[in-house]
Specification:
Elements lengths: L17 H22 L6 H18 L8 H18 L3 H30 L5 H5 L1 H24 L4 H14 L1
Helix pairs in contact: 1-2, 1-4, 1-6, 2-3, 3-4, 4-6
Length: 176
Amino acid sequence: MIAHLYLSGETTMDKMPLIALIFQSIPESILILALGLTLMGVELKWKRIFPAALISSLASYFVRELPIPYGIHTLIGICVLTLLVIIFFRTSFSVAISAAMIGIAILASVEMLILPVIFSLIGERTINKIWSSPALRVLLAIPELVVLGVLTFWCIKKKINLRSLSNNHAKKSERD
């Protein structure tokens, strides 16, 4: 996603290898959905998250095959996630798009923080060599997945959601 910061002149998406779909994209989609839904106060139903994440990852896989400019896949991903949240979790459009955008925004933030560190540790300046090695691509995604997993688990465990925070803030403002 944020890899465009490290692309050297590339303007189209890379072709995602099957190993990256299985070991990177699907776990990432599970975490994006779980975190976005948690932060929007939607009850997590894992039997719905897994198929939604699989569909989201497959959509991403096929979108990357299209000759579209880099970044458009993110917009398509948000649309796909929004539709999947509406269909699988029967939420309103506003909750669904918020969950999708929050999940993607947190993913982007984690990537922006982690990728420069990883690149400096391995002495790489662009993502092209990483993308050309399916095994390296999957291995270097592990820190991102761990951070997303820990953050998601923490939000679930602490029952943190943005809707209750805004309701608490509104109630406090009414009292003042």
